[in-house]
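Sample intake sheet
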Amino acid sequence: MPSCALGSPFVAFAPFVEIAIGVYVFGKISMAHFNPAVTLGFLITKHITKIQLLYYITAEITGTLLGSLFVKFLIGSNANLGANAPNYSYPIPVIFGIEVLASALLMAVILVVVHTKGLKGFSGIAIGGIVGLDIFFLAFISGASMNPARSLAPALVSGVFSNLWLYFTATFVGTSVVAFLLKSKFEKKN
């Protein structure tokens, strides 16, 4: 977890607010797709097509790259632009498992929101909330990226690639497992 003078609650609260706002602003426009691992889950549950998967992932990576460049030029390259980093004092299987868990929890909450058609207006709070909680409780082990695009962009812009293997594997495993487990909930509706 990146360090912050305001402490770990702020490090978890800021993404909660960001995601909540993003869901409310972009939910009706693009289903608030910000995460390629979640987008793959939506392909598995048949909420999107293969061509939409390509469009969404292209947009997600482009958006995170622009965001990382903005941060680099506005703030500087401190903390490798917020590139995720696991805590290697834990064994690799634990780190991997925690990142799978964080991504799975995110996908589960998102699919509950979709299944309930917006969770009675609390969709942004629920999705942002699980991101914040995952970061608060799990980032000290795995970095709690949950999002390969969010990990890729700071790595590309800062040149720190050593941890991308984790965020390009565990995130997709977590979201895919949950999508396959809950796929039947949506098959009757599609």
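Comment: The radius of gyration is 16 Å. Residues 50-74 form the longest helix (25 residues).
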